[in-house]
Amino acid sequence: MQITDEVELAEIGSAANQQDKFGTAGGHIRAALLLLADRNHPDYRNVVKESISAIEGMGKVLTGTDKGTLDDALKALKKQPLYSPALLDGFRKIYGWSSDSDEGIRHSMKKESTLGYAEAKFFLIICSAFVNYLKTVGEINADEQDNNGEPS
């Protein structure tokens, strides 16, 4: 695999090692990593799909629902004051691209995929970083609620 930057590796590693209630997100990141690492038949389209699915899993955990889409979860998270609305909207647009794309990422393929290593690497890294962001902010929010609104 061609991901050698220490910061990128740290983000992926942290997201891939999610445990407990965030384990589903970690499983999706690990699956994406395996698909990207396959030297003989890398599956770039499914790297993107698994990466986006990790974010969807985090959203469902943080909103406490098993139903709905990533878009629904991101809209719900916007109502929580600690999450950046602009950042959540940015990921809604990225999710929209993965749903609307002719590449067949989240829906059936309309043509042969043209996704390459660059897109797969980009999605794996940004989705890993976003998983870590959502977890960190979610933990801060939980700590504040545990302390009756007082930061710990």
SSE layout and pairing:
Elements: H1 6-16, H2 23-37, H3 44-63, H4 70-77, H5 85-100, H6 117-146
Q: Helical content, roughly? A: 55-70%
How large is the radius of gyration? 16 Å
Compute the number of structural domains: 1
Please report which band the strand proportion falls in: under 5%, 5-15%, 15-25%, 25-35%, 35-45% or over 45%: under 5%
Report the major sheet: none
Write down how many β-strands occur, each being a DSSP E stretch of 2 or more residues: 0
Shape from CA axes?
Answer: globular
- The averaged pLDDT comes out at 82
Cα separation of the termini: 40 Å
Low-confidence stretches at least 5 residues in length (pLDDT < 50)?
A: none
Estimated structural class: mainly alpha
Write down the secondary-structure element order.
HHHHHH
How many DSSP helices? 6
Your description of this structure?
It is globular and about 55 Å long. The protein has one domain (6-101, 115-139). The protein starts with 5 loop residues before the first helix and ends in a 6-residue tail after the last helix. It has six helices and no strands. α2 (23-37) runs antiparallel to α3 (44-63), α3 runs parallel beside α6 (117-146) and α4 packs antiparallel against α5 (85-100). It has helices at residues 6-16, 23-37, 44-63, 70-77, 85-100, 117-146. It is mainly α and 152 residues long.
From the structure above, extract its key features:
6 helices; 66% helix; 152 residues; mainly alpha
